[in-house]
Specification:
Protein IMPACT homolog; Impact_N; Impact; 11 strands; Impact_N_sf; single chain; Alpha-Beta Plaits
């Protein structure tokens, strides 16, 4: 059955740094809330500056609510030994609009692919356990156009339905942009369409 849930989990703020040690290698884990892919590069570059002795800064991110896009980056570690284990933790915590990065400082002992997978997975898990995971509601926005005379009726509906006003232009011809919880969209549209003189776009 299609999941019509209109909430999703993401991070409220960047997590504190966590540290996982394995055979003298240090794995520093971080989790960040992001909205676009463009935010990823500056964050990774700042981590590389911070851990200038790190051999690898591996990461994974996922963006989107209904249409998900993701990327996993091994940053020179053996194929799928870092990025994918990190991405697996993003999936396991069911968060989106999230970037998880792990900076590794080599301790002199090779861990092997299995050891790397386990270490990156653990550091990513610790970063997410340490993060502030919040639930957000999927919203859709509409523009309402109406004559000033309709103001009371429109405002009553907004108040009753607890709708959020994103922007407003109050003149003879009024324009309101409202934000509606996804699961209430059809019902709210119907109410406004039923009010004489209100145009919905």
């Amino acid at each position: 059955m299609e999941n019509t849930n209109d909430t999703y989990k993401t991070l409220g703020k960047p997590s504190e740094e966590v540290l996982f040690k394995e055979k003298k290698s240090k794995f520093y884990g971080y989790a960040y809330p992001i909205e676009t892919e463009a935010e990823v590069k500056p964050i990774i570059e700042s981590l590389k500056k911070k851990h200038h002795t790190a051999n690898h800064v591996c990461y994974a991110w996922q963006i989107g609510i209904e249409q998900l896009s993701y990327r996993a980056n091994d940053d020179g570690e053996p194929n799928n030994s870092a990025g994918m284990p990190i991405y697996g933790q993003i999936q396991s915590f069911e968060v989106t609009n999230t970037l998880v990065a792990v900076a590794r400082i080599f301790g002199g002992t090779k861990l092997g692919v299995g050891g790397l997978i386990s270490a990156y997975k653990t550091a990513a898990k610790m970063a997410l356990e340490n993060a502030d995971i919040i639930q957000k509601i999927v919203q859709e926005q509409f523009k309402l156009k109406f004559e000033y005379a309709q103001m009371d009726v429109v405002m009553r509906v907004i108040k009753q339905k607890n709708l959020q006003i994103v922007s407003q232009k109050m003149e003879m011809q009024c324009e309101l942009v409202i934000s509606v919880r996804k699961q209430d969209v059809a019902q709210v549209k119907e109410i406004f369409v039923g009010i004489y003189g209100v145009e919905l776009t």
